[in-house]
Amino acid sequence: xxxxxxxxxxxxxxxxxxxxxxxxxxxxxxxxxxxxxxxxxxxxxxxxxxxxxxxxxxxxxxxxxxxxxxxxxxxxxxxxxxxxxxxxxxxxxxxxxxxxxxxxxxxxxxxxxxxxxxxxxxxxxxxxxxxxxxxxx
Length: 137
Description:
The protein is mainly α. It is built from 4 helices and no strands.
C-alpha cells in the first residue's frame, strides 16, 4: 500500500488548506496592467509626479481664470469700488505685472484685453505643458 499523507481534520465549513484558493478579487495575483492603471497610466515615478502635475495644471488654470475674469469685469464696466472687483483686479495686476503695457493702444478696452490675455495664454501654455511633461516621466 503506497504511503499517503493524511489531511488535517476539517472544522465547520472552512476549506481545506490543501485545496486551491477560490478565485476572487482579494487573492488574485496582480499583473503589470493592473499595477499601471493604479499608478496613473504606467508612470514610473508614481503618484507624486501625477499630483505635482495636477497642482501645476490647476494653478495655471486658476491664474488664467483670474485674468479672464478681470478682462470680463473690465469690459462689462463692473463697479471698480466693489470689494470683489477690486480683489480680482489686484490679483490680475499681480499676475500680469510682468506684461503690463506691452500693448499701448488708444482703445482702452483693447489695451486691457491684450495686456491681460497674453499672460493668461502664457500661463495656460506653460502650466499645461509642464504638467504633461511631468506625467510622461
